[in-house]
Predict the structure.
Amino acid sequence: MRVLVAYASKNGSTAEIAERIAGELARTGADVDCVEAGTVGSLGGYDAVVLGSAVYTKRWRPSARRFVRRHRRALAGLPWWVFSSGPVGEPKPDDPRATAWLEPPRTIARVERLGARAHVVFGGRLPLQPRNFVERAMARSTPAPFADRRDWDEIVAWAAGVAAELQAGSRAGPPP
Ligand SMILES: Cc1cc2nc3c(=O)[nH]c(=O)nc-3n(C[C@H](O)[C@H](O)[C@H](O)COP(=O)(O)O)c2cc1C
């Protein structure tokens, strides 16, 4: 079983999530490539794909959006899963604007239309070295415990679920 984990990350934290997912899939016996989404030329030879992107101002990174566009036909014939990484700062479940901040709605609708098995949003991490005014302002206004909201147990559990679905699929054999 060959699995591609492709990611789009600006400041490295989504790449780390992708690597952890790849590690979990490899632990269960898959042969896994974990690479930046823009470097993938073809999905030939892969049995499944996991695609993840950081979210900035409600948009996926360009290389993840391009990946979906470029490989949409191949993806339609494969099992594939999607994650976004984004939310940082103090959770505000009662604030509807906070929910709007989480996801790029059109992209998510698109991957669902194209048959992704599931889409999950993981917490993100603020840039370790803020590079501009907005990033510095976010860093200043975010209490330290909420600067990195990645929950590694949640991430590993999600990857284990993907691995279980893959194993169930490979036991069942190819569709008739
Ligand atoms: C300027 C800026 C804008 C952001 N916009 C969003 C957003 O719209 N939605 C979201 O969920 N997270 C947003 N985030 C949080 C990032 O997605 C989070 O920091 C993510 O983990 C970054 O991933 P990366 O380290 O792989 O680049 C934003 C962060 C910054 C610095």
Notes: Residues 2-172 form a domain with the Rossmann fold fold (CATH 3.40.50.360). The first helix runs from residue 13 to 27. The CA atoms of residues 100 and 161 lie 27 Å apart. The helical segments are 13-27, 62-70, 72-76, 96-102, 105-113, 133-141, 152-172.
